[in-house]
Amino acid sequence: MTLVSEPTLITETTAAEAVAAALGAITAATTSADLRAARAEFTGEASTLARMNASLKDVPNDQKAALGKLVGQARGRVNAAIAERESELVAAEEAARLADEAVDVTAVATRW
Q1: What is the radius of gyration, based on Cα positions, of the chain?
Q2: CA dist., res. 20 & res. 29, Å (int)
């Protein structure tokens, strides 16, 4: 069964709203798993930005360049935010993992 999605109207407002929603979810992600879910929701095939990109084929030729640039910039902002947040989360998770695995070599041994 193939799902047919509605074409998405491409305007500065709809692009800005899609970016704002994505940036909010990306900022709220506290784990890599949360970020993967946000990535799938906001950059996946069913996302608003992907539907806008797919709708470009139906745009009149004289508007394609401007609207294509608008969609491309919106997708670029979301992807850049995801990459930045991913590096932050990976570093934080790695630091937490190393802290959990730390061994105090000055502690008194529990076994002889």
Answers
A1: 21
A2: 14
Give burial (CB, 10 Å; 0-12/13-18/19+) of 71.
buried
| Alpha-carbon span 31 to 89, nearest angstrom | 6
Rounded to the nearest integer, the mean pLDDT of the chain is 87
Closest by Cα among 36, 37, 67 to 52? 67
**Which residues touch 49 (CB under 8 Å, ≥6 apart)?**
15, 18, 19, 22, 42, 43, 71, 74, 75, 78
**CB contact at 8 A, 71 and 15:** yes
Encode pLDDT of 64-83 as tens digits.
Answer: 999 999 999 999 999 999 99
DSSP string, 42-102: HHSTTSHHHHHHHHGGGS-HHHHHHHHHHHHHHHHHHHHHHHHHHHHHHHHHHHHHHHHT-
The predicted model scores a pTM of: 0.77
- pLDDT exceeds 60 at position 4: no
